[in-house]
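INFO  loader      accepted 1 record
INFO  loader      residues=349
INFO  predictor   begin
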Amino acid sequence: MKILVTGGAGFIGSAVVRRAVADGHEVVNLDVLAYSANLENVAEVSASPLYAFEEADICDAPAVKAIFARHQPDAVMHLAAESHNDRAIDGPLDFVRTNVMGTAVLLEAARAYWLGLAPDRKAAFRFHHVSTDEVFGALGESGSFTEETPYDPNSPYSASKAGADHLVRAWNRTFGLPVVITNCANNYGPFQFPEKLIPTVVLRAMEGKTIPVYGDGRQVRDWLHVDDHADALLTVLQKGRLGETYCVGGDSNLRNLEIIKILCAHLDRLAPANVPHAERISFVADRPGHDFRYSIDASKLANELGWAPRTDLAAGLEDTVRWYVENRAWWEAIRERGFESERLGLAKA
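INFO  predictor   done
INFO  writer      dumping tokens
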């Protein structure tokens, strides 16, 4: 099929683009190329006849409409989003604009396009909205999120994604637009922008800097390798029941401090320093609205569609550290542009 992927130059979006092209799908990558996007993430498929790129803002209704008309996609995979919680605290309206208004603009463009399709193509069309488990809020010491968990977002980012989820459901129930929604766990792997936890730890350790840990580091996350996530998303796009939501998890729950210590152990072997990397861990003030624990129950996805994660967390983390060690040019170019987490007070550290 021909798939319009929004945000295809970002971390998860680029993994979807690479996987879809490898599977033989045509892909149109729609990306505004904001600060965290990078066309190097899709360089391996950029010369493929199956790949096309459109630089555009999903909030630009005429541009989005023209892209639908020009490329005539069979499906949409909507991954374009502002996603970094620290930035959402400092500039929440940017998140509302992209994640809520941008999704509404895209839905309207998709609806108008879908209504004009021939009956067979109209019946086959899909709009897949990719969201996060953060829309469900925080868990206590036990339990997991399911597709039935009530929404309870605690941050501007998660609230904006919850708003987008509700819009997608509304366009399905009011207008009949054929949609599927996925809510995923924390992703990790190659090409992740350096402001996120795992690349922050790895890159700062390699640069001989302190390794920041929010609060006491006891927050728990479910970790999902980005390539497993891309596989799950394409599975849901092609096989998921219309109007349904599927939670996507890695079945790998660890505290942030545990993850950081594992990364430090890998770094001690792959990029040794004059002291063990774990000695550089520094606890910093927790961020506002920091959820305590996330955990995903992905049994619906497993039972209905036969999907399960393939990447063992220990092996995946080691491979991820090795990728950053071996791809300094990729992240050093980003560092040279001055991007680092200012909220953590790291910009001049």
